[in-house]
Amino acid sequence: MLEYLPQILFIIVLVGAVLFFIKNVSSLKRNINLGKEIDQSDRKDQRFKKMMRVALGQSKMVARPIAGILHIIVYVGFIIINIEVLEIMIDGIAGTHRIFGFLGPVYDFLISSFEILAFLVLVSVILFWIRRNMMNIKRFMSKELKGWPKNDANYILYFEVVLMVLFLTMNATDYQLQLLGASHYASEAGITGSFPISQYLLPLFDGMSVESLVIVERTAWWLHIVGILIFLNYLYYSKHLHILLAFPNVYFSRLDDLGKFKNLDAVTKEVKMMMDPDADPYAEPEGGDDDIPEKFGASDVQDLNWFQLLSAYTCTECGRCTSECPANQTGKKLSPRKIMMDTRDRLEEVGQKLNNKEEVTADNQLLDNYISREELWACTTCNACVDACPIGIDPLSIIMDMRQYLVMEESAAPVELNNAMSNIENNSAPWPYNQQDRLDWAKEEA
Amino acid sequence: MSDSLNVPTMASYLAEGKQPEVLFWVGCAGSFDDRAKKITKAFVKILNNTNVDFAVLGTEEGCTGDPAKRAGNEFLFQMQAMTNIEVLNGYEVKKIVTACPHCFNTIKNEYPSLGGNYEVVHHTQFLKQLLNEGRLKVEGGKFKGKRITYHDPCYLGRANGEYEAPRDLLRKLEVELVEMKSCKSKGLCCGAGGAQMFKDAEKGDKEVNIHRTEQAVDVKPDVIAAGCPFCNTMMTDGVKNKEKQDDIAVLDVVEMIANAEDL
């Protein structure tokens, strides 16, 4: 019985980690579904192609070549090395040694690719750390990245370094054990696997006894797999959710021209009724009061739609949006990245309240408590942030929904804008010129 | 070329039972702003000169609602939109050309779901069409060899993906086209969009138009070419702020074509 202990222990850890992950995913789903309904299910072909190109193919990442290429290395490494995790899991459950070893040359090729990728990931991650902490790159120095967001980014980098070092240590000791002909490790068919990187680590283990090597190998194996399971469960609390959510986020992202802002149907009904000379002004609106929304625009996360909330969880806080933002570049408070981070923070707060069965009240809300009016009014709606996002996030749509709330619910536009709008209302131009003079230019000297 | 412009209205066309090839949507800036009116007139000169059969709505035209919508006033936007759509549909308009990218974007993208479906083109796209059809000839002229940098209006470029029509027209003028640090899909806003034109900017280190003008000045152009009346105002102010107005002109692409031909 005792000999099965490691296997039983592994299965318990694995099941525990998966269950905790499922619990987090269900909170995530519940929170995203607090958002309003929006139909993003059209043009499935086009959406799928965009997802393959932008999320899987990382086409927008390389707009910034250095960060983009390093990211692609880490991303490819992450996906490919995870094939090895499958073998690690099977070995863990069945108590086998390198179960896919029978693949022979194919196996050697796979293991050597994993090793080379692990090495490249290690190098990239170190370069990422230097960029983030030592190079004073403006988008990593912003106020909104102080504290947790900065630590979160660094923790992930440390995690990657530790995982890659453990992976290579595991392989090196395994190789050494095979060379020493240790039982369970060595096979009559020769060496299982090919170790182009970890072979250089062998001198470190020279002269170690088989017993000590087994301890090092097992420790590295356990820490590596447990590390991966911890990483999986860390995602929910981190900007690293993007490794899962980038795919649905790009799939559901907007396909129309960026200049096309959505028209509010509820307003259309009201305006049509106002303009219809036959309409009875005292009549009940068709379909009862259901058509009239509780409020126009958004002052809190529940007023946004589920895609905007999904995007808040997807945001990787890379800051490409903010560094392209004309308002931010000229020192205004607005930062599109902060809009997304605030939305996620507030949504998490609401989620916590729901977990604790507390009432969600408006005395703390997205508007004012997280996002100030000054930020919202600084936007030029130029769409640079939307274009810059490598995974299809649209911070501008949140800004617009919140402006709508300010103007339509609170009549709280800046004074000069109110003047322009009353001009439009009175004489159909943002300036106080008479509509009857609209063609005067044609009579002037050419 | 006579000094007076021929600007028929849709009402006069209807009275004669005729339908023009295209409706010219002038826009508020093009109708009232002194600087933008020059752009309007330059475009009309070219339309007259190339015998394009066009008409304007004149006093029946009203703000498209773009600034209201981007300020967050959906109600006012839709009131404007539906009023305009009623007029346009009444005249059975099929094709619209405008020299304002904001009017262009709003009519093209936001009117259809409210019942207004038209083919909408920006004036640079329209001129390109005329060029392709051989109706407009553009060759060299007084800007030949001059250094020109083109400022992409957000609502023509990023918002609607049109980067080449204005550049193609400039190339026809045989100018030396130089690009600013931020151009095309990365083009930097002039600072006027999203109803900013009609309000003071929030507190910051500098104005957006100054920032953009600095990018333009960096490439030492003779002319900053624009395709939007609001960008034009912002860049003109920026150039004045830098005291470069004697060295750098800010002109709409259509003004450059009209001037080159000495219309």
From TrEMBL, chain A:
Domain of life: Bacteria
Keyword presence, Phosphoprotein: no
Keyword annotations of the record: 4Fe-4S, Iron, Iron-sulfur, Membrane, Metal-binding, Oxidoreductase, Transmembrane, Transmembrane helix
Domain 4Fe-4S ferredoxin-type span(s) in chain numbering: 306-337, 369-399
Residue spans crossing the bilayer: 6-22, 61-81, 109-130, 151-170, 219-237
Name of the molecule in the record: (Fe-S)-binding protein
TrEMBL record, chain B:
Sequence intervals crossing the membrane: none
Keyword terms of this UniProt record: 4Fe-4S, Iron, Iron-sulfur, Metal-binding, Oxidoreductase
Domain Cysteine-rich, residue spans: 22-108, 148-235
Family matches, as InterPro entries: Cys_rich_dom, HdrC_iron-sulfur_subunit
Name of the protein: (Fe-S)-binding protein
Native source organism of the sequence: Psychroflexus longus
